[in-house]
Design a protein that fits this description.
Strand content: 35-45%
CATH architecture: Alpha-Beta Complex
Largest sheet: 5 strands, antiparallel
Structural class: mainly beta
Radius of gyration: 15 Å
Strand order of the largest sheet: 6-4-3-7-8
Number of domains: 1
Order of helices and strands: EEEEEEEHE
Helix content: under 10%
Distance between the termini: 35 Å
Number of strands: 8
Oligomer: single chain
CATH superfamily: PEBP-like
């Protein structure tokens, strides 16, 4: 499986500011392909494993989670709307929350999962990966970096 985004990463190799809280704080376009046979739905997970400080990370910061994306969708347009069910992120919102690193350059992993089930139920940010694992057929990711100067 392959995940792509035309405009997520700029020519300097860093995440385009538009997709951060320092810019428009909109979600990037995400497109996935080479989906395995038997895929019945997708899930998406965006996290920062470097929070709050890349030199002393304490936890993952979850920026976006979506479950129950129908198998007929292989794209999330720039700025949404996101198909499927958005879950509460670490910002307390059911939407994309762009990067806002307090210090240093952080890594942001955008992951899409192909699942062999139509729907997942009872998923929270604490149980997301545990619920995904037994239903996962494949996954793909993009990593982008962002930091303030």
């Amino acid at each position: 499986m392959k995940l792509e985004s035309r405009d997520l990463i700029g020519k300097d190799g860093m995440m385009n500011k538009e997709f951060t809280v320092d810019g428009k704080d909109v979600s990037p376009e995400l497109v996935w392909s080479d989906v395995p046979a038997g895929t019945k739905s997708f899930a998406l997970y965006v996290h920062d494993p470097d929070a709050p400080d890349p030199k002393k990370p304490l936890r993952d910061w979850i920026h976006w989670m979506i479950i129950n994306i129908p198998a007929t969708f292989t794209k999330i347009p720039k700025g949404g709307p996101a198909p499927g069910e958005e879950l509460v992120n670490d910002g307390g919102e059911k939407n994309y929350g762009g990067p806002s690193p307090p210090r240093g350059v952080h890594r942001y992993f955008f992951k899409v999962f192909a699942l062999k089930v139509d729907k997942l139920a009872g998923v929270t940010k604490e149980t997301f990966l545990k619920k995904i694992e037994p239903a996962k057929l494949a996954e793909a990711e993009i990593m982008a970096k962002y930091g303030r100067k």
